[in-house]
Amino acid sequence: MAGREDGNRQQETQAGTGPAWAAELLEHLRPAGRDVRRVVAWLSGTVGATVALQDAAGNLVAGNRLPLDEDLVADITAGRIASAAWESRERHLRLVRVEHPSHACVLAVSRQSPFDRRASDIVTHTAQVIELLLTVSESNAAGHRLRRATADLRLAILQLLMVEDTIAARRVAAGLWPGLLDAETASVYVVESDPAARDRVAEECLDSTREDALVVRCPAMDGHVIVVGPREATGDALRSLVRRHSGLFLGGSVRQSLARTATAYGQAVSALAVAHFRPDKTAVYAERTHPERLMDPVALRGWTSRVLRPLDTLPHHTRAELLATSRLGLEFTAVNAAKVLGVSRNTVRARMERVETLLGTDFTDLTARAVVHLALNTQIGLPDIPRADGTEDPGLRLADLLSGPAVRTWAQDLLGRLDADSRNPRRTLRTWIAAGGNAERAAQALGVHAQTVREHVRSAEPVLERQLLAAGTDLYEVVLAHLAVGDLDLPEFRRPA
C-alpha cells in the first residue's frame, strides 16, 4: 500500500500529470501563447504521440501528417460522428472532431501505448482549447479583414474627392457613414507621426473625431494620416491629440469646397512643414495674397478658358481625369500623385504628357508649369464667375494679366525681400528657375558650385515664406512673381497664352 501511495505521489509531481497538465494547457489561452501549432506540439510531447490537425480537405493545419482513413475523416468533419478510435499492436489512434467557425477539423493522435484515462482526458481538453483558439483566430482575421476593407473604402472616397467626383464620394460614404460628406466645405488635416506608430495614431484620430471625419492612412507618406473634416470640431480634436502625444505634428488647410480637396491637401502639407517649428506642433495654412486674386476675375476666367480650350474636345470623363491628375501632378511628384490617386506613376506621367501635347507646352519648364497651374486653379477656384462663352477678348494675354498695377506691386514687394542679402540669392533663384529647378545647370550658368545654388534657394524660403525646393503652389507663385516683374520670359504655348 505504501508503495502504491509513493507511486501515486510520484505520478502527481511529474510534469504533464493531473492538475499540472491542465495548468500547462490553460497557459496556451493567454494572449501571448495563443498558437495552435504550439498547442499541438505540447500535446505531442505530453502524451508521447504523433499529432496531426487537418481540415476536411486534408490540408495539414499543424503537427505531423499521419496516414488516416479518408472516409473516416469525412464522417468526422461532416458531423456524422464526433470521434473515433483505432488500435493495433503497433499503433493506437484517436480521432476527435474540432469545431471551426468556417469548417471542421480533425485532431488525430497516434501513439504506441494504449490511451489511458489521463491521455484521453488530455486529448479531449486539448481539442476544446484548439476550438477556442481557432475561433479567436477566425474572429481576429474577420476583424482585420473588416478594418482593412473599411480603410480601403475611406481611401477610395478620398481618391474620388481628389479628382473632384464629389457625387460619387458622397454616394460611397453614405452607405457606412451617413451624413459624413453632406457639408459643402471641409478642412483637410495631415497628422504626422513615426511610421511605426501610424496605425495607432489613425485609430486615435477616428476616436477623437468620433468618426465625424474621413480618416485615411496616406498612401504616399508612411507617417501621415489624412483627415477630411467637414465639422468645425475636427481641428480642436486633432490639436488635443497632438498635445497628448510627443512626436506628433499637425498641419491644416483653410476651409475649401469638397471639390477642392486636392488643393486643401496641398495646403495642409505646406502647413505641416511650418508645424515642425511651432511650440504647439500645429499650424494652419496662412491665407495670404495670391497673385490670381489681384487680377480681374472675369479676364482671368476668360484667359483660363482659352488656355484650357484644347481639352474641351475630349469626352467629359476623360477631360476631368486629365485635369484632376494634372493638378496633383503639378503639386507633388508623379510617384506621390499616383499613390494618392490609386494609379501607377506611368499613368500619371502619361496623362500629364497628354495635357502637355494638347496645350502645346513643356512641363520641364517651371514657367510653363506655373502658368498651367494658375489656369487649373482658376478653373476650379472661381466658380462664381460666369464661364467664358467664347466672346472674351481674343487679344487678352497672360502678359496683360501680370502687368496690372496690383500684381506688379505684389511681385516687386515679394522678390524685393531678397535684395538685402549681399549674396544675391535673387539672381540665383532666377537662374535656378530658368534651369527648370536643376541646381547643376544653374551652377554652370552662374559659375558656382551646385551646393551653393541649393543653399541660396533654401535660404530664400524663410524670407519669402514659401517652400521652393518642393514643387507646388509656393514655388509657382514665386515663378509668377518673376514673370510679372519681367525677370523671366513668358513660356511658349502652341496656342498663345
UniProtKB/TrEMBL annotation:
Ranges in coiled-coil conformation: none
Pfam family, one: HTH_30
Signal peptide segment: none
Residues annotated as domain PucR C-terminal helix-turn-helix: 336-377, 427-469
Cited InterPro entries: CdaR-like_regulators, PucR_C-HTH_dom, PucR_C-HTH_sf
Family matches, as PANTHER family: CARBOHYDRATE DIACID REGULATOR, DNA-BINDING TRANSCRIPTIONAL ACTIVATOR ADER
UniProt-recorded name of the protein: Helix-turn-helix domain-containing protein
